[in-house]
Amino acid sequence: MYNPISISSTMLLSFQQIWPVFLLYLTHQSVEAQFPRPCTTPDALQARMCCPLWNDSPCGFSSGRGVCAPHPARDLPKPEDYRVNWPRAFYDSVCTCWGNYDGFDCGQCLPGWKGPRCLQRHHVERKEITDLTEQERNHFLLSLHQAKQSVSRRYMILTSNDTTVDGNYAFHNASVYDLYIWMHYYSAKSYAGSANNAAHRGPAFTFWHRVFLLFIEREIRELTGNQYFYIPYWDWTRTNHCNICTNKYFGGVGQDGRIDNASLFSKWKTICPFHESLGIICIHSDASDPPHLIRNPGKDPVYKTLPTAEDVEDTIATPLFDSPPFDTRSRNSFRNKLEGFEITNDSRHLNASMHNLVHRYLNGTMSLVPTAANDPIFMLHHSFIDMLLERWLQDHSDATYPESDQVHPAQRMQAFMAPFFPLRTNDYYWGRDTQSLGYSYKEHSLRRTSAGANIRQAAEESTTSEVQWQWPVLGVFATVLVCISVGAAIKCKGKN
What we know:
The protein is an alpha+beta fold. The chain has helices at 9-27, 42-47, 134-149, 176-188, 205-224, 309-316, 334-339, 354-362, 377-395, 455-495, and strands spanning 35-36, 49-50, 53-54, 57-58, 66-70, 93-97, 101-102, 108-109, 113-114, 120-121, 124-126, 155-159, 170-172, 439-441.
């Protein structure tokens, strides 16, 4: 298991050289027999029960951790797409955890807690990615690679070629990182016969992704043993290009959009290709050769710019969390502006803004939202979106999750977030700030000179000043060369 230690650039290069051996090792590790493994057995599926043992007791009941109990969604009518009304299609009873206990078997702690009885506070501070030290950056990147190559011992993923047919699915092994990709795909892909899904285009967007980031943080902590692993954020308002699309971070980009071979991310293969028909979930058309990551940042003429600090301020200034009809048509809605369907007040005449614009700007794997989590930049992007959510919530303590029949059934306040265990309603995390969930955000080290001012200009001026000081140096250097040449010529002439 990876033990975080000081890693220099030389060590990272060495890791790149031994990567094929490391990959071979990880892919051949044995695994124990986002569906909990114990809940994918024929017995569990036939009993329609997901109540795994913890310390020889279902849901840790004998240890006072939780209880196996029926859930309300089991009594809801059968939907057209079995992904609606999670987890109705699979289980009637699941674990309900007590106190600070969490997890599908109540064997973990709630976010923000640690210790054998989950009574100690746990806290991390998420930093901007370019503010990480070299050691922090290398720890983070290598943890992602370990997650990409290590089979999850806790969960399996579901594949299906028609989510309108009950029982049309199979369970498969997946790496910890691919499990994360699958969870986003499962929830982000539109339901059959609808443009709606569980995680976008409605009021659940912000909190679903908050829970999603907390989930993968915890899984990578479990994998690596580093309980202080966290997902940095990428503040895309401070640059006029993808400043993390370099080999120092997530890989430079070639002419064909492929990641530079010098980057470890060039080895990554995508899962869950996008299909429109019949709700296909994670079925590869050519599973023997899945595609690589693709990025073409800024090369789409329609989406060739990133959101600005002014866009952020305009979004944050929106007083209502969401508004009818609670979808992409909502107006004067913080959620819809943050998601990017309601265009902010700018002069660029864009077709997308904020969250959506960043996806489009990267112009590749990130551009299709259901498959976007294949690109590791996705998690940093959403960490920044979460930071903006927290900033808005701090200024609107009286706001509430919308309670309306106009909200799609999967995103109503009492509907359960798919596909998480234990079950959490869409409004569960409302009123729980990041401090209570065990994390906070550290402001970027480069402070803005004024409220809402865009740092891009400062960055461009910095580049210009570098060029400006180079000219005098080059001039002096040229003068010296001329003097030497003239002196040499005079000396030769004197000899003649």
